[in-house]
Amino acid sequence: MKNMSRITKVIMPVAGLGKRLRPLTLKTPKALVPVMGRPLLDYILEEAHESGLSEAFLVVSPQHKTQFESYIEKNKERFKKLRFKILVQREALGNGQAVLEGAKIANGEPMAVRFCDDILIHEKPALKSLIDLFRIHGAPIFVLERVPKILIPHYGVVAVRRKLTPLLHEVSRVVEKPNVRELLGTEGLSNLAVVGAYVITPSVVEHLKRVAPFAPPLGDALPITLGFHHELAEGKKVYGWEFPGKRLDCGTLEGLKKAEEFLKSITPGK
Question: Cβ–Cβ contacts within 10 Å for residue 70, how many?
């Protein structure tokens, strides 16, 4: 039986075209757009490295494969504890499909998943905190952040069954980008949004595999949150950890500018 408490692998879906970051992404992949002179991917790899992970699977688009290969060749000495594998996502069918690409070589183990849109700043790496909580509770878990109610339709948000600690929530529902009807009709739906970092189990992967053939062929067809939705539908536990640090949303030009300003403000000599 596999050790279900030991996390060694992280999937990093970096195949997105970054339309909201144009013109910066016309020639550069979103994950390689710089903030404070460092590609976004740098911050995420640093977090994974400091969290004790040993394998990083980068899921890339075909047109950007060479650029990521070049990045890894130049930076592998800085992340000596990480072994890299580049996987190509042939079709842009959503972040859940990118996770399935990484899961193909994960040997049925629980894994971390980390997106590059969010830089998560805290004294302890966010992935390390998630992994530690997973070891205690043995169930899928992701990072949560409270967002203004007006922004709820732009996120996957949760309903909370119970609060275990001030920051740890047992989740009862996950709704991806709810519309007005879902906001009114989902009992207890909160303003706690799912952001950027996860630990998933093989059963979450299996749920994504089962629904993938029925996903529509356009847009964010297979969001990772569908895996958690079906996990909960089977009566299994899913947890959300409310992030106590600073989240920098780098998915838009405005967010990128704010991230740059914040990092300058906390960087000595800048």
Answer: 11
Task: Report the pLDDT value the prediction gives residue 1, as an integer from 0 to 100.
Answer: 36
Cα separation, 7 vs 90, in Å, equals 27
d(CA 236, CA 172): 10
Residue of 124 and 211 predicted with greater confidence: 124
- Rounded to whole angstroms, the Cα distance separating 44 from 24 reads 19
Tell me if 2 is assigned to some domain.
no
Does residue 124 contact residue 96 with C-beta atoms inside 8 Å?
Answer: no
Task: Give the pLDDT of residue 214.
Answer: 76
Per-residue pLDDT at 249 exceeds 50: yes
Averaged pLDDT for residues 195-204: 94
For residue 3, being part of any structural domain is answered with no
Determine the structural domain holding residue 261 and report its residue range.
9-266
The C-alpha atoms of residue 163 and residue 166 are separated, in whole angstroms, by 7
Which pLDDT score is estimated for 20? Answer: 84
Structural domain count, the chain: 1
Query: How distant, in Å, are the alpha carbons of 29, 65, 121, 159, 220 from that of 62?
Result: 11, 5, 31, 37, 18
Q: Is 1 among the domain residues?
A: no
The answer to whether 224 and 198 have CB atoms below 8 angstroms apart is yes
Q: Which residue did the predictor score with more confidence, 267 or 48? A: 48
Say if residues 172 and 160 touch (Cβ distance below 8 Å): yes
pLDDT greater than 90 at residue 178: no
- Asked whether residue 61 is assigned to any structural domain, the reply reads yes
- Domain at 17, CATH number: 3.90.550.10
pTM to 2 decimal places: 0.91
What is the Cα–Cα distance from 55 to 206, expressed in whole angstroms?
Answer: 21
**Please, which residues bridge with residue 147 across strands?**
none
Question: Is residue 24 within 8 Å of residue 34, measured between CB atoms?
Answer: no
